[in-house]
Amino acid sequence: MFLDVKELAVRKLRIHKFYPPGTIDYHTEEFQQTEPLEVRATAELVDGEIRLRGELHTRIELVCARCLDPVTEEISREFDLFYRPMDSIRTEEDAKLDTDESEVAFFEGAGFFLADALAEQVNLAIPMKAICRSDCRGLCPQCGANLNHEECHCQTHAADPRLAQLARVKQTWCKKQ
Ligand SMILES: [Zn+2]
Ligand SMILES: [Zn+2]
What we know:
Elements: E1 2-4, H1 5-10, E2 13-19, E3 31-33, E4 37-46, E5 49-63, E6 70-85, H2 87-91, E7 105-107, E8 111-113, H3 114-125, H4 161-176
Parallel strand pairs: 6-7
Antiparallel strand pairs: 1-8, 2-4, 3-5, 4-5, 5-6
The chain binds zinc ion (2 copies).
């Protein structure tokens, strides 16, 4: 869907759309959209700027920062964005582009694709570090074993007191057999 500044000058646009996985280019390999992205928004022209306001919802898959297993994250985000035509920079002094205006984005030509704006919003909503579960034990730094799934025999990883206790229980149990 293309948001055309000339069309928006005629009428405000109400949007309710679903983007299946693979239809939005996120320009990154770090995560994948796993469910249709739903967007409800309005687009309108306000003082020569395109105002895009609404919310999006989807699910993405990325890798656990500790163990590299896949992690699914729910992404919900509200947005209220202003897009200014690129031509307006040349007519106004550049000095006006101070820090207050950092929230304003620009578009070139007749408008921009809604999918591009959504891709940016999803990228902003991605957690810096995803962890598969709060007690994820990660990978053994020595042999690379995923310590959630298997025990390795390296000595390097810090001993967990709970595990030491478990090991003792296991030992006693083995002796009884
Ligand atoms: Zn993990
Ligand atoms: Zn190991």
